[in-house]
Model the fold of this input.
Amino acid sequence: MVKITLNKSTLELTEGNITQQETDAIVNAANTSLLGGGGVDGAIHRAGGPKILEECRKLGGCPTGAARITTGGNLKTRYVIHTVGPVYHDGKHREAELLASAYKNSLNLTSRYKLKSVAFPSISTGAYGYPMHDAAAIALKTVIDYLKTHTDIELVRFVLFDQKAYQTYEKALQELIK
Done:
């Protein structure tokens, strides 16, 4: 596990299962319908139970780059922040801007709900095909920039699903904090 301190906040990288996190909120890499899917999205809906899907139905979807919040259902977390990252095409269709927006809007909801801790997966790097190193650099830079000006969030944790993803994020973090 890697930990760095930014102002009064801690940024962590860890390998694990996001559905097992006990942070105030976890972030779901959702699709625009918010009605469940594969990867992280499917895992969160399965582990969280029907209450999450019930609340998602009432939200009527979520555009790419935006974020919405629901209960944590049966999860250990109080809330799930659903955000929609971009499908990667070639990097020339506002993908970087939309990915940064997904992270920033998730952090804005964390602050708005006065939550002290949030756990993120690696958004858009699974089925949506975003190159892992590029996505990691955008994710980490967005979070670091946010924490430099917002001291209300005490912990932002990136929960990475395997050793390769963890190492990619660790390398991107080292490049950013040189």
Remarks:
- The chain has one domain: 2-176.
- The CA atoms of residues 16 and 161 lie 5 Å apart.
